[in-house]
Amino acid sequence: MAMNPRLRKLALTAHVTSSVGWLGAVVVFVVLAVVGLVSRDPQTVRGAYLAMEPTGSFVLVPLSFASLLTGLVQALGSTWGLFRHYWIVIKLLINVVATVLLLVHMQVVGHVADVAARAALSGGDLVGMRVQLLADAAAALLVLIVAVTLSVYKPKGLTRYGWRRRHEAR
Ligand code: HEM
Predict the structure, then answer these.
(1) Nearest residue CA, atom 17 of ligand 1?
(2) Please, are residues 20 and 128 in contact by the beta-carbon 8 Å criterion?
(3) What residues line ligand 1, using a CB cutoff of 6 Å?
(4) Per-residue pLDDT of the chain (170 residues; tens, 9 = 90+)
(5) Exposed, middle or buried: residue 153 (CB in 10 Å: 0-12, 13-18, 19+)?
(6) Segment holding 87, helix H or strand E
(7) Of the residues 91, 97, 142, which should be mutated to test ligand 1's pocket, given the most ligand atoms within 8 Å of the CB?
């Protein structure tokens, strides 16, 4: 169902705000993960891991769902469609996979934050999990940059379904 131009602009504003906001929050997460790994000051390390939990629960997770929801509205409420263009299918995949991994990742964040709340973490404590937090956040940043790039360039490739629909329309 096509939206009228006003509604479409409003929905696009919500989509760009939530999606690029999500990317910005991931940058904050990468910085916190780096600070948590490299700082020598125990209070700074503790603060970095404690800040990750609310950042994840109240910013990253809601924005990832908002990006998905508003993206679906953009695709289904316009002539773009959901499965006609590869760039939209790829963004849908990126969004769904990144959101699922984020929810898994939040378990690790919760565990590291719990330990950091009870005692100061020193260099070697939970190092595997702390490196994983950084690697996951860096990977999320990379795929979100890919999603923004696809959105702006909108490469032309049509899926098989997209070709069929175009043919039928003619
Ligand atoms: C993965 C995270 C996402 C990011 C970072 C993102 C980013 C963006 C940005 C920046 C635009 C504006 C491009 C422009 O107007 O030039 C856009 C547009 C769009 N996005 Fe997303 N998006 C994401 C997820 C999704 C999802 C999951 C869908 C649909 C399943 C989607 C569908 C669309 C559509 C159809 C447009 C074009 C709207 C229009 O021009 O009418 N996006 N996206």
Answers:
(1) 151
(2) no
(3) 12, 15-16, 19-20, 23, 67-68, 71-72, 74-75, 78, 80, 82, 88, 91-92, 94-95, 144, 147-148, 151-152
(4) 788 999 999 999 999 999 999 999 999 999 999 999 999 898 999 999 999 999 999 999 999 999 999 999 999 999 999 999 999 999 999 999 999 999 999 999 999 999 888 887 776 788 899 999 999 999 999 999 999 999 999 999 999 999 999 999 88
(5) exposed
(6) helix 86-118
(7) 91
**In the chain, what are the domain boundaries?**
5-169
